[in-house]
């Protein structure tokens, strides 16, 4: 209801609640990311340390040998290819469980915290994937009771942790500017849920192909450094165009209500 050109208190309250509800329920625009593998012919994609204390490190050599593909949720646009991208993995893993999966096959599971960053040829950060404080992803690998097989995966998803993507002006520029980046779902600086990612590990070994990673029988942590090839895929989400405006109206309505 309007009195002398002004909404009464109850009207502003109802408007703010309704608009806020629309902002929360507004659909999201997804962005897909992936790389098939690196073009580094003299090194592995991912490496890890031997266990120390209750954890081990998962990292990657900084080699600008990836082509990062950015896609508009399998939409009409062609995938944007960003060449000469470097990958910086900084994960810490802790043992969670080791169980017989079937017969003599064991499944070893570790919690994972930390970040993975993609950088351009100049070292500028393009994209960061991280777990919010207090949450963790999963590193899982099958093998023997005290060893890993040659394949595994590092998984992160808002279904199991709070995954967040953050991007920089360097990524926006690489995609052709703000208007072009927005078509791929790159707006603002951070993603909203749901987000996910996966690093698939293959040829996992303890220094040479066919050399399995051995585990400490008690801690189930690797007893030596290890390495693997890897591919990557993931997705981030932002509000659809127009949702931000709806959210802004909700804020304005709330401010007007407080002034009343």
Task: Report on the architecture of this protein.
The protein has helices at 9-25, 169-174, 178-183, 243-259; strands spanning 2-3, 6-7, 28-35, 46-48, 55-59, 66-71, 80-102, 105-119, 125-131, 137-143, 152-157, 163-167, 192-205, 226-239. It is of the alpha+beta class. It has 2 domains: 1-26 and 242-260; 27-240. Strand 1 and strand 2 form a beta hairpin. The longest helix has 17 residues, at 9-25. The two termini are 15 Å apart.
Largest sheet: 12 strands, antiparallel
Distance between the termini: 15 Å
**Helical content class:** 10-25%
Order of helices and strands: EEHEEEEEEEEEEHHEEH
Our estimate of the beta-strand percent is over 45%
Continuous helix count = 4
Radius of gyration: 23 Å
Q: Provide mean pLDDT, rounded.
A: 86
Number of strands: 14
Silhouette: globular
Output the structural class. alpha+beta
Number of domains: 2
- Low-confidence segments, ≥5 residues, pLDDT <50? 1-25, 244-260
